[in-house]
Write a structure and sequence with these properties.
Keywords (chains A, B, C, D, E, F, G): Chaperone, Cytoplasm
Subcellular location (chains A, B, C, D, E, F, G): Cytoplasm
Strand content of chain A: 35-45%
GO cellular component, one term (chains A, B, C, D, E, F, G): cytoplasm
CATH class of chain A: Mainly Beta
Oligomer: homoheptamer
CATH superfamily of chain A: GroES chaperonin
Protein name (chains A, B, C, D, E, F, G): Co-chaperonin GroES
Number of helices of chain A: 0
Number of domains of chain A: 1
Radius of gyration of chain A: 14 Å
Shape of chain A: globular
Main location (chains A, B, C, D, E, F, G): cytoplasm
Order of helices and strands of chain A: EEEEEEEE
Distance between the termini of chain A: 26 Å
């Protein structure tokens, strides 16, 4: 499997139909549109200036919404993933 | 529900009539115009270089005014929300 | 009332006549012109990397001069205010 | 051999065939494309503001994917290497 | 009087004749030209990340030279002042 | 002799023939090309925010490769040197 | 005399003949050319985030080479000086 570094997160995209499974509808407006995904793997977090590594707020399995134009696409063993930074995640869908 | 990350906040927009319920009138001038909203959910805050997470100043239920062009729109279970960072909030209406 | 966040301050503008009440005359030159105001509310201050919140240097009631093009206008219960950051304040008029 | 400085890493490129040995297929899209490599040497890490040097997350022998346009090429004793910073590494292939 | 905030300083300009009282002659070259002034009031200094406020190096009464295009002009009770940041001061004339 | 300041390093250039003594061949590609040099003197290092000076990773006598367009040339007692910052050094040739 | 602030240094220029007294010859190339000078006064240094002031590495009397386009010229009691920041000093000539 892929293990992301630092504050990076690997997500599987959730196809954005007009109304997604979790009830999010992404509006069609001039503002930046978020996209939905499922967290597949999380990095260990970045190290702060006090020398401590800060764990990420998201965990494997979380459904998240994130900035649409963030990240790098990669296909691994037949599945497409997106590697993004935690700062590009807007919210967890609970 | 949606749980925002870090210093992010989810707000429900308050339609800006000429004179809002809380008494704020948004002037029509050349300067940047603020907008009114109601806080629906707040993130856990960012982590400082000493390793501590700093709680946000706003809480669920607060009425706030914020920079008009800030944030990302998202529609969740039929309601439209805006996800913004605490730094885009100008003031709490008390 | 409005409660500003972080290092923000709410001020009421003092109309800049040629010679203001406090004796300040704003010269008409090519340089950036400051403007006079009265502090109506102050934020709790920002949090430093050591986790401490640093109180602002200005207090409610202070007369200040600030950078003319700073801030966001807002009208609240019939009065116009300006929300600015403490860093845009040049000096307190004592 | 070459010993990279700070947060730098020396990698040997893995020729990106359509489907690589580790099962990664790099999609042909408009987004930034990652590339695969094998870590040959790692730096000692950077020094944080508390004076401590933070070890890198990758080790010699790791297979990694990284941003395609990152790094500096160098040929040493007949082999071509790429010297990149750890922040350009997206994930370790485990 | 005016009390400057943070690392700001209020100075009275010293008219730059060809040779000033303190013996400084400002050369007429292509490089940035400094200007001479007298410190009238100093701010309390900025707060560092460890929470301490650092006192300024200049004091009331110091004659200084500073970057010519720095600062904001203000006229107060008939006298023209310039409000600048300590970082724009080049040297104290002793 | 010349004593570099902070994180600066003085190097003597190694003429980049097609194949250098240490076995490095600098490829002729579109990417940034590194250059080889020998460390002649190193600075004492920079001071971190905790007040400690961090020693450099390179020492006198090291053979290094560095970014080609980095640094400032200086000729001293008949020999040409280049003064660069440690961050411009890519790796030590061991 | 002039007392520089913070990390500033006052130097007297050493006329750069083709071969200077200390043996430095400044090559005529496309790269940035350094210039030679003699330190006349040094500032007390900057304050780090831990609240300590860090003394400069150069002292009065040092001969230094520095970036040619750095600094601000000033003429004081008949002599021309240049006020530069320590970070613009490349090396001390010992």
């Amino acid at each position: 499997m892929l293990k992301p570094l630092g504050d990076r997160i690997i997500i599987e995209l959730v196809e954005s139909e007009e109304s997604t499974a979790s009830g999010i509808v992404l509006p069609d407006s001039a503002k930046e549109k978020p996209q939905e995904g499922k967290v597949v793997a999380v990095g260990a977090g970045n190290v702060k200036d006090n020398g401590e590594r800060v764990a990420l707020e998201v965990s494997e399995g979380n459904r998240i919404i994130f900035s649409k134009y963030a990240g790098t696409e990669v296909k691994y063993q037949g599945t497409e993933y997106l590697i993004i930074r935690e700062s590009d995640i807007l919210a967890i869908v609970e």
